[in-house]
Amino acid sequence: MAEALGYRGIKPVLRLKDGKPFVTDSHNSILDCAFGAISDTARLGTALSDIAGVVDHGLFVGMASALVIAGRDGVRVIEREY
To answer: Per residue, what are the HEC states of the chain?
Structure first.
Protein backbone atom coordinates (compact mmCIF):
# COMPACT_ATOMS: atom_id res chain seq x y z
CA MET A 1 0.00 0.00 0.00
CA ALA A 2 2.81 2.43 0.82
CA GLU A 3 4.17 1.78 -2.67
CA ALA A 4 0.80 2.64 -4.20
CA LEU A 5 0.75 5.90 -2.27
CA GLY A 6 4.35 6.67 -3.21
CA TYR A 7 3.55 6.00 -6.85
CA ARG A 8 0.98 8.79 -6.61
CA GLY A 9 3.55 11.18 -5.12
CA ILE A 10 2.26 10.78 -1.56
CA LYS A 11 4.87 10.27 1.16
CA PRO A 12 3.24 8.21 3.92
CA VAL A 13 4.71 8.10 7.43
CA LEU A 14 3.86 5.21 9.72
CA ARG A 15 2.25 6.53 12.91
CA LEU A 16 4.23 5.50 15.99
CA LYS A 17 3.38 5.36 19.68
CA ASP A 18 6.21 4.89 22.17
CA GLY A 19 8.51 4.08 19.26
CA LYS A 20 6.33 1.24 17.97
CA PRO A 21 3.79 1.21 15.14
CA PHE A 22 0.43 2.45 16.39
CA VAL A 23 -2.27 -0.17 15.79
CA THR A 24 -6.01 0.50 15.88
CA ASP A 25 -8.56 -1.60 17.77
CA SER A 26 -9.10 -3.46 14.50
CA HIS A 27 -5.35 -4.15 14.26
CA ASN A 28 -4.78 -1.76 11.37
CA SER A 29 -1.74 0.49 10.99
CA ILE A 30 -2.16 4.20 10.36
CA LEU A 31 -0.18 6.02 7.70
CA ASP A 32 -0.07 9.81 8.08
CA CYS A 33 0.09 11.70 4.79
CA ALA A 34 0.61 15.44 4.37
CA PHE A 35 -1.18 16.77 1.31
CA GLY A 36 -1.11 20.52 1.79
CA ALA A 37 -4.06 22.31 0.23
CA ILE A 38 -6.51 19.87 -1.36
CA SER A 39 -8.45 21.33 -4.27
CA ASP A 40 -10.80 18.37 -4.85
CA THR A 41 -11.43 16.38 -1.67
CA ALA A 42 -14.03 14.12 -3.25
CA ARG A 43 -11.64 13.06 -6.00
CA LEU A 44 -8.80 12.47 -3.52
CA GLY A 45 -11.10 10.48 -1.22
CA THR A 46 -12.15 8.24 -4.10
CA ALA A 47 -8.54 7.77 -5.23
CA LEU A 48 -7.46 6.78 -1.72
CA SER A 49 -10.39 4.40 -1.28
CA ASP A 50 -9.50 2.72 -4.58
CA ILE A 51 -6.06 1.69 -3.27
CA ALA A 52 -6.02 -1.94 -2.15
CA GLY A 53 -5.42 -2.13 1.60
CA VAL A 54 -6.77 1.32 2.44
CA VAL A 55 -9.46 0.74 5.05
CA ASP A 56 -10.52 4.38 5.41
CA HIS A 57 -9.21 7.93 5.16
CA GLY A 58 -9.78 11.04 7.23
CA LEU A 59 -11.56 13.05 4.57
CA PHE A 60 -15.14 13.64 5.65
CA VAL A 61 -16.44 14.54 2.20
CA GLY A 62 -19.98 15.92 2.20
CA MET A 63 -20.56 15.15 5.88
CA ALA A 64 -20.18 18.57 7.51
CA SER A 65 -22.74 21.33 7.21
CA ALA A 66 -20.51 23.99 8.78
CA LEU A 67 -16.84 24.72 9.13
CA VAL A 68 -15.48 26.58 12.16
CA ILE A 69 -12.05 28.11 11.65
CA ALA A 70 -10.21 29.68 14.58
CA GLY A 71 -7.13 31.80 14.03
CA ARG A 72 -5.28 34.89 15.15
CA ASP A 73 -7.93 37.09 13.57
CA GLY A 74 -10.81 35.43 15.41
CA VAL A 75 -13.32 32.75 14.55
CA ARG A 76 -15.04 32.28 11.19
CA VAL A 77 -18.00 30.03 10.48
CA ILE A 78 -18.62 28.89 6.92
CA GLU A 79 -21.91 27.13 6.32
CA ARG A 80 -22.56 24.88 3.35
CA GLU A 81 -25.14 26.07 0.86
CA TYR A 82 -27.60 23.42 -0.21
So the answer is: CHHHHHHCCCCCEECEECCEECECCCCCECEECCCCCCCCHHHHHHHHHCCCCCCCCCCCCCCCCEEEEEECCEEEEEECCC
